[in-house]
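Methods — Computational structure assignment.
A single polypeptide chain was analysed. Its primary sequence is given first, followed by the predicted tertiary structure written as structure tokens.
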Amino acid sequence: MNFTAAIISNPNLSNLTQYLGMYPEVVETLSSLTNITLLAPNNEAFTKVVSSPGVGQINALDKSLITALFTYHVLEGTYFSTDFTSKPAFIRTALVEPAYTNLTSGQVVEAVVSDKKVDFYSGLLQKATVTQAVCFMLSVRPGSADRS
């Protein structure tokens, strides 16, 4: 299964699928990554984010910004809920563009277990909770780069 098929196959990600359809270059970038965990906002979360104050100011035509936004949701490595504890873990994301991160090794997110759920915190301390985890084995396309 490839990246696009994995997202399309989940009806709870239809808003994300629709939005990504507007950015084939971003899909191409994300499809080239290997050994990753995607923090994909479900329809409810996506609707909250898109309708929240300030998000309307995001320039949807700014491909570098949209790429940064989506690569920030990609964790380097494969993670399962059992990999996390109540002790915070800081995980590198695929966001390494200097214009959008001030960390030389790339942006990180904090992951911590709270009330038997995994919470993720952004660099601005915005909290997102994993409500459902779905594991897909994605096929690697010939010639794609390994980001190990």
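Note: The chain has five helices and six strands.
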